[in-house]
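ok new one. same drill as before - structure tokens go in, u give me an amino acid for every spot. 153 of them this time. try not to just spam alanines like last time pls lmao
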């Protein structure tokens, strides 16, 4: 990444943190002018558009971000949200599945999948997914507990 792009990314992030969405958006657009396939800029612009209620624009940016970074979990979950906002149930589920293909224990995607099943009236499938989520949450705790157990002589 060039120094100019790095400076712009930093400026856009600062604007976003300060709540200056318009300034952040303008700066991210400058990043895209210099590097049209900049994943972070595409994802940020997609998120800004989604937060602004511009679902079509959000989808355009997030689909482009997915092309540039097909395994980026942030991009995939944002795309899931955009597809849901657009009323694209099948597309939403597809984005969830893509995220889980990258990381089958990715909590955000598991919760989105459970919620998707709930909204579609499949309580059994939702329970299965939520149960799987709990297993993934508790696994590190179990491993940590085992590592603390005294070893037998």
């Amino acid at each position: 990444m060039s120094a100019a792009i790095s400076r712009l990314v930093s400026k856009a992030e600062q604007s976003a943190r300060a709540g200056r969405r318009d300034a952040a958006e303008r700066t991210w657009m400058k990043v895209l002018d210099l590097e049209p396939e900049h994943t972070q800029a595409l994802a940020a612009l997609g998120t800004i558009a989604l937060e602004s209620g511009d679902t079509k624009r959000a989808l355009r940016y997030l689909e482009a971000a997915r092309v540039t970074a097909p395994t980026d979990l942030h991009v995939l979950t944002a795309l899931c949200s955009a597809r849901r906002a657009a009323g694209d149930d099948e597309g939403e589920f597809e984005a969830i599945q893509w995220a889980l293909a990258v990381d089958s224990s990715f909590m955000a995607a598991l919760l989105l999948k459970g919620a998707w099943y709930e909204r579609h009236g499949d309580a059994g499938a939702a329970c299965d997914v939520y149960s799987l989520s709990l297993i993934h949450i508790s696994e590190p705790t179990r491993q940590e507990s085992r590592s603390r157990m005294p070893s037998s002589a």
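The two ends are 55 Å apart (CA to CA). and btw The chain has eight helices and no strands.
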